[in-house]
Each structure stands twice: as structure tokens, then as C-alpha cells.
Amino acid sequence: MTTFRPTPLRLLRPRTQARRGWVPLLASLDWGLAATSAALSGIGLLLVWSATRTDPSSTLLQRQAVSVGLGFVLMWLVSRCDLRILRAYVPVLYLLALAGLVAVLTPLGRTVNGSHAWIVLGSGLQFQPSEFAKVALVLALAMALGELRDGERRPGPGAVFLALGLAALPMGLIMLQPDLGTTLVFAAVVAGMVVVSGAPKRWLAGLTAAAGLVLLVVWRLHLIRPYQLQRLMVLTDPDADPLGVGYNATQARIAIGSGGMLGKGLFQGEQTAGHFVPEQHTDFIFTVAGEELGFLGAACVILLMTVVLWRGLRIAARSASPYGTVLAGGVVCWLAFQTFVNVGMTVGILPITGLPLPFVSYGGSATISTLTAVGLLEAVHRTRSRTPLG
Amino acid sequence: MRSGAHGGRLVVLYVVVTSLMLTLLGRLWYLQVTTGPAYARAATESRVRTVPLPSVRGQILDVHGHPLVANQTMPQVSVDYMALIHQPDGGRAVLTRLAEALRKPYQEIADRARLCSREVPRPCWPGSPYQPITVADDVDPRTVVRIAERQAEFPGVSTALRPVRTYPLHKAGAHLLGYLQPPSPSDRSGGPDLVGRDGLEAEYDTELAGRTGLREVAVDSTGKVTGLLREEAPHPGDTLVTSIDARIQELSERALAKAVTNARKRGEPADSGAAVVLEAATGRVTALASYPSYDPAVWSGGISQRDFEALPLVSNAVLGQWAPGSTWKVTSTAAAADAGYKLRASYDCPGSYKVGGRSFRNFDGIALGRMNMHRALVVSCDTIFYRFAERMWKHDGGLKPVRHPADPMQSMARKFGFGNRTGIDLPNESPGRVPDRAWKKANWERTRADSCRRAKTGYPDVADRKRAAYLKALAAENCQNGGVWWAGDAANFAIGQGDVLVTPLQLARAYAALANGGTVFSPRVAKALVRPDGSVVRTVTPPVTGRVDVSRRTLRYIRDALADVPREGTAAAAFKGFPFKRLAVAGKTGTAEAYGRQDTSWFASFAPAKKPRYVVVVVVSQGGTGASTAAPAARDIWEGIYDLHGKAHHKHAKKHGKKTTAGKHRHGHSRKAPRDASHNASHRASFEPARVGDAR
Predict the structure, then answer these.
(1) A145 lies within 8 A of chain B by CB
(2) E-assigned strand segments in B356-400
(3) How many domains does chain A have?
(4) By the number of CB atoms within 10 A of the CB, which of A261, A299, A346, B29 ranks highest?
(5) Helix, strand, or coil here: B63?
(6) Is the Cβ pair A329, B13 closer than 8 Å?
């Protein structure tokens, strides 16, 4: 494994590692987290394979495999990092993310599925800056909320305002794409991190009120686009327009529902084979799990996800520093919210927003940033105090 | 950092995360386990498309195997709805090009290609979006080929040959054959096949239609077929063989139309009519004509609502009903004989006869002296029947009827099958009417309120003052005594006037009963249903519905009397020069009066008189006397059936050789005239009418 470590990144070599060798190296990882992440990624690969199996010319499986590989390399590297060194690069990462989001809005950007969220680098190579911005945001907010001045037990107003400001910039840029789903992920991450940071309750109340006010303004000023509103309406009655907006929702529910308890078997799903659910390899990958693996398989995916989130929270709780706690809390909020929204929309309890299912959905940027986030959790894990929580 | 704020807040996050995931699990359980089976069905429905395969409808053949209704294939252009909506512009460009190619307005094509719903009015497609939607069905083959060749320009457009009903006889038999219409949602299978709406097409719809096949295909989300799951081949419909003789059907319609034309030349309104030809011994229908008629080809191309409403769809032969006039005397004579009156006795035929204080006149008010019943039928004396009717009426108690009146005339009429539907294998038949005391009372109770009101208010809406006054007086009478069966009612009944109503078919089957010795049939048009492979599914025989229990001698007596009607009686003028030696036609004229309308002209006949083979009944509404309008038409029909104008025809043929050759080819029947049986009784075969199949 050591030979695997590339020399140019020697700077990032963790300094807390007292001794070289396999045992401490392995012991320093949260194996539960790493294993569940790997399991979810593996399931994701199988499902992408199944979702694209009817198209022999499809290279999506191979591309996803490369993404997963790259993701795990990055996860490994990030988990080796010293948080304090990483901390030094946060402003750079944050600015890079902002630059990416701005670049999307320039002619460099490309529209896919109504969202102007992509940057194309040559043939077939494209990435989604908003996915990487999630990583940058978590890091930046952790910096703002997790570095308490001496004697402080909780972040002051300045820190909270800084955090809000740091979040508002990318959120605004993403809203311009427009990508409501990712914006909401950002909002959830901000809210979750402010809560975890221990900000005063009246602040939380004030922020909640402010969020409500913003929603009201958005609603009254018709800042939501008609199609977004329509998606909300269709949620209450998907059959109102089965071939239009409600088509996805209806077909997703049919695919999942028809899986039953045990599913039709991997690669056996007829709805999947017929491509009845649009985007079944990306945002609607969960329908493949539902149809082919049944309730048992789909519940397994959710339980694995729950394990990831619990491990993340455990890491947050055991972190030696507030920075680590807030950072881990942010990652958990991100993954939890995104999972809930994604699965929620496929099973018909949430409106349709273009969010991938972490680890499982096809998508290079999303896969790599998710695995990088797991790397962050692992990095926090290594700073844990030896005494158990309590 | 375990202590303080973070620890507590992380617990909140634990709870939130766990409850979110539990929510998902709960919903998943509901979707997959609780309602899973329903979704599994929905999945099958969305994945499997059932495409109905139209079956070929059976032909309708005449008695010699000539088609009355056949099938022909016509090119047709359809579009695939699912393919259209998946095009970027929703198929607009394709439909525009298609409309141009078909030289039709874009809107017409686009309207036909849209799906019907509560918001979308017709024209639109009422069927499944997965069935090819027919947007044009009167396309010339060259256009079809052009569209088929340029598939790249017309994605989602298909061309196919579609069977269309054709009618080799054109206008002849339109009412008899019926027509087809697209199925309404409540019909049979809701499949693609048209449904019979009238005539034989409706009556034998199930048999003619066969069974629609189906093809279950697996489709993907774009509606593209990915595989065949199951196919059930369509079963072609059975062929309906009828007893109709196409030649006789055609000549009957021609004779009827000619009678109507001639009557109009004489100034009669002659608004409608019918002709019926039955086989006397079997009750089979040989021809059933109705005037006015229409060309059934109008159904092939689709028809507008306005044209549809203007079509004369009523089949007068089974649905039309009129008072029978003197043709009715056959049952009255039988009733008199049954009641004990000697047919050969001598009865006085005065010019008029007083019944119940009112004078009932002979047809022309002329006294004809003493005569037997034979003569009474030949000259159509009315007064003798008035007397019979009055006596019978008195015997039943007159104005104070006995508890169970014998009503010999009515019961005899019913035995001949009047007052009941014949039960012929055609839809929409009238029952006719045999009025009696009970009917009159019931009718009075039904109309009393209206009569009494009219008795007071009069008829200010009637322009003719004399007529208005008459109507008012009638209303006053009806208000007071409308329920009483007067002696005059009985007298009218005896000669087929007043409230008696019969359909041409009822009269024909009554004459068939007279001719065949008393058997009353429920006539049938169908003879057999035959599978495409030639095996017989079932044969149809006219059921016997009753017997006229009158002695054979009485029936023969009446038949003999009727045999003299065309020779020397009321129809003598119409049958002047008729070769009675070759074919002895027996018949009875009828002239039924109708207030405010011209007389209904009837002629009911059978031949040959000694051993009747056919019954021919002709009626022309408002056609004048039976002798002037209906009898000549019946003569034409008899001459046509037995080819009696053969000699004249041959002379004619030499002049117009081409025309006759064409006619000969069409009918293919022998022009050899049959000889009269009375001259050569042993040659029964030669006595048969000319038959299409006998061509050599």
C-alpha cells in the first residue's frame, strides 16, 4: 500500500502517524465506514450495469468503474491527510469551487436535463462543479463554525454570519443554473452544521424564521420556475398527467412496486430492460434496486446508507476537535439529505429534483466527491480521542 | 469534543437521520409489499401491449352463392401515436408532410390523429394509442405507394390494406343487408372491427364478425416493440348463405320503383312502398324490397351526420304497417266459413248496407246482385262482409258484449299470424294490429284526456275549416264513446279498414299459409352459416309458429277464388295479356283508405295457383287503388321470376344485343321460359322458375 502513495503528495502525509507499517495504518481507518462505502459503490456498479445492459454499446459501466476507482484513491489520500494541513488549503478549494460554478455559467458550461451544471473538457470528459462545491462548502463551513476562539464553547454571531455568507455565494450561483436540488442540499448542510456547531438556540430559531421568510418571498415573487412548481403539484397526484410531468414519478413507483418482497432478480427487471423510468442509471437508480432486488435488496441499500451515516455521526462525536465534529456533521447532513431526497422522490413521497443517490448513482463528479467526503470522515476519524464517547 | 453542545446536537442529528431512513423504509415496505401486487399488474400493463388483429368479416351470399355483400381491400394510411409524440415537435412536421401527400387539410389529419378525451371533441381517435390510428381511408393506391416508399420522411406512418364491404347489387337489398359502423365502447370486444347496425349485418353480427385476434407484444418505454409474447390468430367470420335470390331481389326493387314512378305520374304521392317474395311452402324469404332505398356504398368511406340523418333507413317491408284493405278478406272469408257460413251459398251484394244506423257502401257503391263467396272475392264485394261482421258482432252481444266474445274475425286474423311480429331474422319489426273490443277500450283510455280536451278547444291549428269541424266532432265522439266497439268497427274490420294494421311481411306469410294449406312460418332470410373452409356451422329453417285450423277445402276454395281475380276480377286490367296458361297467378287487390291521405295500394298474390311456390306482396303507400299500382308491380315481379316476358325480351334483345348480353352475364340465368304445368303436368321441372344456377 505504501508504494501506492504518490510522491508529489508527500506534503499531505499525515504527521500524527507515529509509526510506519501496516497495523497502525489499518487501525487508523474506520473499517465499517470504508467497507459499507465499498459495498454501496459495488451495488451501484451492479445496478448501473443492469440499467444499461440492454444497450451493448454503452460504456457507462466502465466509466462508473473508473470513477469509483478514482474516488477510492482520493478517499484514501484524503483520509491520510492531516486535517490541519487540509485546513490550510480550504480557502483555495473554496475559491476553486466558486470559480468552477462561475465557469459553468460562461460559455464553457453545458446544459444536461434542463440544468446548466456541466463543464466539458474535451471529448467525453465532463464534470459538475456543484458536486465538488459540496466538498468545498463542508470544509469552508467547518472552518467558519468549528474553530472556536479561546474560551468559546460555541460559535459567535460572527462565525455564523461568516458561515451563512460562505454558503450563500455558491448557493446563489447554483440557483442560477438552475439546480434546486443541489441548492437544497447546501441549505441542509448549512442548517445541519450550524446546529452541530452548537450555535445558540435563539440563533437557530432566527435562522429558521429567516429560511421561512425566504421561502415565502420565493413563492410570492414566483422565483420558482413553473416546471419546479409542477413537480411539486404532481407529487400530490402523479396520475394527473401520467405522460407528462407525472410520468417519471408514476413509472418509478411502478418499477419499485412491481419488485415486491424479493425482487425480480438482478438483470431480470423488465421495467428496467424497457427503460420505462427515465434516468434510471443516474437519479432514478434506486428504481432498479427496487425492481430487481425487491424490498429486501432496496432496504439493504438504505440500511447500508444508514450505517454510513451512523459511522459518520460516531466519528463526529469522537472527534478531538470541534472542527472535526462540525466537518463530519456536515458530511453526514449532506449524505443523509441527499439520500432522503433521492430515495424519497423515487418512492413518491418527495417532488422530483435532480439529485443522485450517493455512492450508487452513475456520475463521475458525484461519485468522486462522495468518496472524497468519506475520505474526510476517515481523516476526522484518525484524530479521534482514544476514550469512548460519553 | 464529546461534552456540551456538540454531544447534544449530535443526538438530534442521530434522531433525524434515523427517522429519515426509517421513513424511507416504511414507504418502501408500503410500495413493495403492501401494494406490490397492484404495481406488478401496472408494470405488466405498461410493458405489454395488446394489439387487436382484425378478423375478416364473412360474406353474405344469395341462394345461388352470388355475393350480396363481399369484401374488397382498400389502401389505408395510419399513424402510430406513440411514435408521433416521441418526435421533438410532437409529430407536427410529419403530419404536415402527410397532409400534403394526401392533399388534405392539415387540421383534418391532425384532428383524426389525436386521442379522444373529455376535453377533445370528435373527430378524434377513440381507440388505444397503441393501435394504428387511421387518418385516411379513401386513399388512391399511388399515394399509398409514394408514402410507403418514403418511410424516412414519414416516421410513424404506416400504410395497409383494409377490407371494405362492397355491395355487388348496389342499391338492391340495402335495408335487408344492413350496414356496419365503428364499434361504440359498449359493443362486443371494443376491438377494431366494425359492428353490424341493421339488417342481416346486425342480426348475424357475431357469426359474421368472427373473432378478433390479438397479439401481445413487449414494448419499451418509447412504445417500440421488443418482442412477441403471444399471438392469437383472428378467426374469420362465417359466410351467411341466404335464401335471397339476387335476381328476384333486383327485379322486385325495379318493379316497386317503377310502380311508384307510374303512380306519381298519375298524381298519387306514392311516398313509400315494399315488396316481399316468400317461398310459400317453406317460409323462406326470396326478396325483400323497400322503397325508398339507398346505396349501401355510402357506409364505406365514412359518413357525415347530416347525410346519415337523410338516409331512408326504415325497411318498409318489416317496419312499415298499413291497413290491408281487401287483401284482408281472405281471413274474413275463412272466419265466415269457420263460423258456419256456406261459401257456396248465395249472398246478396247490395250497393250499401246499413250497419248500426250508418250506411256502409260497396267500393263504388254499386250493387252486384247475388253471388257465392268465390264471386264475392273475385269482384271484392264489401257488403257481404259487412253483414257477416254485423251478425258476428250481434252474436257476441253487440253493445253489451258477452263475457268471452267469440270474435271469429279477430281470432282468425291472429291464426293467420296478424297482430304479432313474424320473428323474421331482421331487427326492428312492427307487430301490426288486430283491433278488438279490448284494444279499443284500452286505446280510448289512453287517448280520452286528449280527445276530451280537443272536443272543447277544437282544432284551431288546422287550416281547413271543414276538416277542423270534422275533427272536433270526432274528438267529441271519441271523448264520450271512444271505447265502444261499434258494429261499424266490426264492419270496417271485416274488409281490412279502420284500425287494422299489417306489415307487408305479415301479409305475405298469411298468404303463404293460405297457399301452403295453413302453415304459418316465422320467415327466415338466412339459410345457413358456413365456415370459410366450407363446413356448415348451422342451418336455419323457418320455424312453424302456428297453423290456420281451417279445412283444406275452405282454403282451396279461397285459393281458387283468388286465381280468378287477375283473370276476370279486380286485377284483370293489371293482368291483361298475362300468360295465365304458363303461370296461373292468384291474388287479391287491396285499397285501404286512410283519412287525410291517399289510399294504400296492395296486391297480395301467389303462384302457381294449384301448387303455389312463391308469394308476392306489393304495397305502395298513398299509391291509389290496389289494381292500379300494386297489382302491375306484382305482375312485373311474377313475369320476372318466371321470365314470362321472355319472347318479347328476345325480340328486344336482337335490337339491343349488347345490353342483353351484359344482363345475361350479370345474372347468368337461362332465358328459356318455363312452360305451364297444366299443359304438361309430368314435366314438373320445367314448371320451376328460371334459376340462376341453371345457366348453361
Answers:
(1) no
(2) 358-361, 369-371
(3) 1
(4) A346
(5) coil
(6) yes
Least confident range of A239-253, A375-389, B213-227, B502-516: A239-253
- Contact (Cβ atoms closer than 8 angstroms) between residue B603 and residue B633: yes
**pLDDT tens digits along A323-343:** 999 999 999 999 999 999 999
The distance of B270 to chain A (nearest Cα, Å) reads 60
Q: Residue A232 domain-assigned? A: yes
What is the reported pLDDT for B527? 95
Could you give the CA distance from residue B467 to residue B470 in angstroms, rounded to a whole number?
A: 5
Q: Which of residues 21-80 of A touch B (CB under 8 A)?
A: none
What mean pLDDT is reported for chain A? Answer: 83
Q: Which residues contact A106 (CB under 8 A, 6 or more apart)?
A: none
Question: What cell was used for B53?
Answer: 388483429
Specify if A321 maps to a domain: yes
| CA proximity to A375, closest of A327, A318, A317 | A327
Q: Which one of A194, A258, A300 makes the best mutation probe of the B interface by having the most chain B beta carbons within 10 Å? A: A258
State the average pLDDT over residues B189-202: 76
Q: Does B308 touch chain A (CB under 8 A)?
A: no
Q: With an 8 Å Cβ cutoff, are A243 and B85 in contact?
A: yes
Mean pLDDT of chain B: 83
- In the numeric block, the cell 295457383 is attached to B609
Q: Which residue has the cell 442560477?
A: A176
Domain housing A254: 31-382
Q: For residue B681, what are the contacts with CB-CB under 8 A and spacing of at least 6? A: none
A2 in any annotated domain: no
Segment 256-285 of chain A within 8 Å of chain B by CB: 256-261, 270-271, 273-278
Tell me what the mean pLDDT of segment B428-446 comes to. 92
Place of cell 407536427: B92
* Contact residues for B376 (Cβ-Cβ < 8 A; gap 6+): B329, B333, B347, B349, B384, B385, B561
- Reduce the secondary structure of chain A to three states and give it as a string: CHHHCCHHHHHHCCCCCCCCCHHHHHHCCCHHHHHHHHHHHHHHHHHHHHHCCCCCCCCHHHHHHHHHHHHHHHHHHHHHCCHHHHHHHHHHHHHHHHHHHHHHHCCCEEEECCEEEEEECCCCCEECHHHHHHHHHHHHHHHHHHCCCCCCCCCCHHHHHHHHHHHHHHHHHHHCCCCHHHHHHHHHHHHHHHHHCCCCHHHHHHHHHHHHHHHHHHHHCCCCCHHHHHHHHHHHCHHHCCCCCHHHHHHHHHHHHHHCCCCCCCCCCHHHHCCCCCCCCCCCHHHHHHHHHHHHHHHHHHHHHHHHHHHHHHHHHHCCCHHHHHHHHHHHHHHHHHHHHHHHHHCCCCCCCCCCCCCCCCCHHHHHHHHHHHHHHHHHHHCCCCCCCC
Structural contact between residues A216 and B30, judged by C-beta atoms closer than 8 angstroms: no
Which ipTM did the prediction report? 0.89
Establish if A156 belongs to a structural domain. Answer: yes
DSSP states of B310-354 as a string?
Answer: HS----TTTT--B--GGGGHHHHHHHHHHTT--TTS-EEE-SEEE
Domains, in order of start, for chain B: 72-165 (no CATH), 248-320+506-522+536-645 (3.40.710.10), 325-416+425-494 (no CATH), 646-696 (no CATH)
pLDDT (mean) for B26-35: 92
* Closest to A12 (Cα-Cα) out of A61, A67, A73, A63: A73
Over residues A173-188, the pLDDT tens digits come to: 988 887 888 888 999 9
Name the residue facing A258 among B16, B40, B218 (closest C-beta). Answer: B40
pLDDT band at B646 (very low <50, low <70, confident <90, very high): low
Spell B622-640 as b/e; 16+ CB within 10 A means b.
Answer: bbbbbbbbbbbbbbbbbbb
The answer to whether B334 and B554 are in contact (CB under 8 A) is yes
